[in-house]
Amino acid sequence: MHENIRVNGERLWAALMEMAEIGATPKGGVNRISFTDEDRRSRDLFTSWCESAGLTVKVDKFGNMFARRPGRDNSLPPVMVGSHLDSQPTGGKYDGAYGVLAGLEIMRSLNDGGIETERPIEVVNWTNEEGAILKPMIGSEVFTGALSLTDAYAMATPTGTAESGLDDIGYKGDLGLWSYPVHSYFEAHIEQGPILEEKNLQVGVVTGAFAQQWYTLNFTGLEAHAGPTPMASRRDALVGAAHAVLAIREIANGVEGGRGTVGCITPYPASPNVIPGAVDMTVDFRHESEEELEEMTSRFEAAVGAIAEENRLEYDLNANVSIARVPFHPTLVGYVRTAAESMGIGHMDIVSGAGHDACHMAKVVPTTMVFIPCENGISHNELENATPKDCEAGCNVLCNAVLAAANSTETLEMKP
Ligand SMILES: [Zn+2]
Fold it and tell me: How far apart are alpha carbons 416 and 93 in whole angstroms?
């Protein structure tokens, strides 16, 4: 075993703060939507930092960026470490940027210590993780081949297409997608939930990501006048929707670790004195176990039928998105856990409730993630906050886990 190396926490923090000046918002967050000038400037700054650190930066045909530090044996597939520099329109300083800049800090620290690794290491910045103007996590999706480059290029954005957006910022590169083998992928990220903070721990050892089942649900009744129509003769679709919202909460509460959310609800015709004749809503169930998820969704499907019947409504329930549980690679998860343990950093195993580029990568490349706490679990918000100490601790763990992979000459099987 190598000695643990320590990163420079102050330099990491300074890089986070400097990056956050690009697209800075008055409330202390950032606005760096893909294919905007802010996106371009964040990529330019990242490139200049990488080049100053002696890294070779390449850009692939979908704008994903790879900054390589050579290893002793450059015929070995590289270890990748990264995340994304784009943000929500009212996003925070840490979501995404932390993972990219933690990767950069590892490179700088290895340089400081004159440390060589067996394998090359590459820092990655994925294109358009956030999905503010395109579907989310599209850069890693295209990279892994789950979405074709042609289809991705053609996707519409507010100003044109994804392809024209990449051209606009000068980041449609030459590198082919996934044009060489990759040994492993690591991603550090703020947790985006409250668990680590509540338990006063600095690192989450992420073992995988939640299984998800999304629906669209429509209730149809009959619109009628709010005055002359007695309560007993109504077919109020919004009352059905209200029952469904509460049923979803009860179902998710009833399964340990369950999540159930109605994010959108649209009544029709939405007039103050008309009983709503129809409602469209979205439903999102998640669980770390596919069995428990199925338990929740079958209860939900039964509940919807009963609610419709009781309220004399028609309904149309459509399961529109299914995402299987994503298990991360046990060897890499072990590297992260060992790094945290050997440095005495408080940690726990955790499952990611959100999607990340790592979820696409995990399907084709051995992958894992490292979480750090964020204040009150808040993200996708200008108030998003993390502490310099937690950023440093997470980067130290990431660094030593990445080193373990980069110094291993073994090929990892996808399913060991
Ligand atoms: Zn993110």
Answer: 37
